[in-house]
Write a structure and sequence with these properties.
By secondary structure, the protein is of the alpha/beta class. It has 5 helices and 3 strands. A 3-stranded parallel β-sheet has the order 1-2-3, with helices on both faces.
Length: about 130
């Protein structure tokens, strides 16, 4: 199902739980799985965004900022957003960035076909000529 499910994707948002070290540790595998399923020609530069969710649970956070920064750095300077689905923090900014990256990638890969010659019809408001047989 992977390749069919991911077909046409122009960016990928990886989401991990800030309160779960295991979810952070799985990010590399999730990224690989996505790239293997989509198999894009530009796998090394394919745009990813990282969301660290549950930022509202400050006392329970298990992954520190330095680890996240390092992960993003070694993964093509992946943009990162500390988010909370509960209080809606940073989600709009993150999705705007995802849309921007997707649009830029789509625009770069889009093929525009322009016909070599365009013929325009001239439209006038002249009365049609009448013809009658008598």
């Amino acid at each position: 199902m992977g390749s069919t499910f991911y077909r046409g994707c122009e960016t990928c948002i990886l989401v991990f739980d800030l309160t779960s070290r295991d979810s952070f540790n799985n990010l590399g595998d999730w990224k690989k799985e996505f790239l293997n399923s989509l198999n894009p020609p530009d796998a090394d530069t394919y745009p990813f965004i990282l969301f660290g969710n549950k930022s509202d649970l400050k006392d329970d956070i298990k992954v520190n900022d330095e680890e996240i920064e390092e992960f993003c750095k070694v993964n093509n300077n992946m943009p990162y957003f500390s988010t909370s689905a509960k209080d809606d923090s940073n989600l709009e900014e993150g999705f705007k960035k995802a849309a921007e990256l997707a649009f830029n990638r789509y625009s770069k890969n889009e093929v525009t076909i322009v016909p070599p010659e365009i013929k325009l019809l001239k439209i006038t408001k002249e009365e049609p000529k009448r013809c009658c047989l008598k």
